[in-house]
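Mods, move this if it's the wrong board.
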Amino acid sequence: MKNFLRSVALCLIFASCGNQEKVSTEIAPLLPMEDFFRNPDIAYFTISPDGKTLAFTKPVNQRMNVFATVIGSKDTFQLTNFTDRDVQSYFWKGNKIVYAKDQGGDENFHLYVVDANGKNKKDLTPFAKVSVGVVDGLIEHENELLISMNKDNPELFDVYRLNLVTGSITLEAKNPGGVINWITDHTGTIRVAVQSDGVNSVLLYRESKEQAFKQVLRTTFREGVNPLFFTFDNKFLYATSNLNRDKAALVKFDIANGKELELLFEHPEVDMEGLDYSYKRKVITKADYTTAKSEVKFFDQATEKLYAKLRDKLNTEDEIYITGNNLQEDKFLVRTMSDRSLGASYLFDVAKNELIKIADRAPWLKSEDLCEMKAITYTTTDGLKINGYLTIPKGVEPKNLPVIINPHGGPWARDEWGWNPEVQFLANRGYAVLQVNFRGSTGYGRKFWEASFKQWGKTMQQDITDGVNWLVQEGIADPKRVGIYGGSYGGYASLAGVAFTPNLYVCAVDYVGVSNLFTFMNTVPPYWKPFMQMMYEMVGDPQKDSLLLREASPIFSVDKIKSPLFIAQGANDPRVNKAESDQIVEALKKRGVKVEYMVKDNEGHGFQNEENQFEFYSAMELFLAKHLGGRISKPVKEKS
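Not the wrong board. Structure tokens:
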């Protein structure tokens, strides 16, 4: 529960594709673009702590709003009624719903509360230009939360105790400077803080609320201990750690003395990602990690048996997730999903041994019409092993195909196997889609991550280029029909692709991507400022590494770009300022390079509103079809 709430606060292998198995020899029907990106009819289910009520979201005038219904009743209450933007996230707090929402994508989230019957709605944090998150849901305190806000200093988040009934906000912990994470024990007392000066990370600890914090461990940002939650006696921490190892492992950590006590689990190829526990039984239950697909390490026999029972009842090869439960842990919400299906949601009643289907997520999409995502590997020109995923259009021989290279954002993130609406949409249009976990992608250990430092536009980009060359060598790609599309860092990689390898790509789509590393670093949100020294080490220092950053910025190689571009940008983007797109569009137009430019005034870092997504993907479909020859649902029309 705590891990979920904290997440609200912060902001394989088939070596030769010629041997792959085919799902079907029948070419998939051309599916409507809207079917891939439309809002679900009903989704995002949660169950109340007492297990009596389900909350969920459903669209009202194209905006996802929150509803609630008593289990077994036909009465449904609409809890929110926003018309400008979806509710971003929500959770139960006693018999109330707390939810978060920003304005036009500015990421300045407010917290709201409403009773489960739709009454007593209140904006709990009505502050301008302030971002709010949840530090601890305080399960034992029905009407209180610990929240973080940068109200007094836009660069720093302090902790406040928030009363949901009175709306009162009292300071719980003042940020002394550089604290980027607060950790509470199981009583809701802040006991640990993670402090950073941008390069060095410090673990701070106190025995009780009355004591001052003391330093227990100091590391560089390259290694360290990531606290997850306290042991159930509140003496030690469960954490992930890459101290003296390449891959992050799960450990029990003696926080008072700053040392590891016990290795719980590690994997030789990938980092461990997290750890779950049972609030009722006070035991750790399972850990998740990702190789080619998601995998689980069970620590608790009861949890392992529960998953086995669910798999038996569902009789599916899809991945199965438990997405929520009540406090008594006798009712569980279950979700299925795969690469070709958004699956369905279920309610499992332990006492009745009954699994009830609640709703299909996207019943209008049939898995037999969609495409397999397969894990692949290839070796770069400098000998590094790269993992990725390749999706081939259904019923098509993987030979001489038009291809979309789809680098992920981050860049310190990774692509994973599973449902991806963009990939399925593009494959349905006849494109093979390659997703590349280039160097720097997370989950593969410290060495692989550090290999990306100061390599924007260089070896990171070469990894992507090597992926294109691999597809050509395998005979999968038609070298005259390769395009590149990505968002955020993936948008940067798309611009870098056509700027630094101008003969490789026929066209490119840049979605909220960086074009100029100097201006990008000057316009980051204020609460990113504590991380700037780290950014300088990972990307480059604008003063010391000015030549490096200039070489890596597509805007300064705009004279080499000759491929048509389609660029999309949110006007309120706090991460990649609109000026990043404006300047390269202006420079390209001056040179006579064809560029389509879409700006949405009510969006931020990516388009959330359904009608904007429809317009973007419709335009991208036409753009790609015009330049790569893929299938289209509408004829391509030349603009006058």
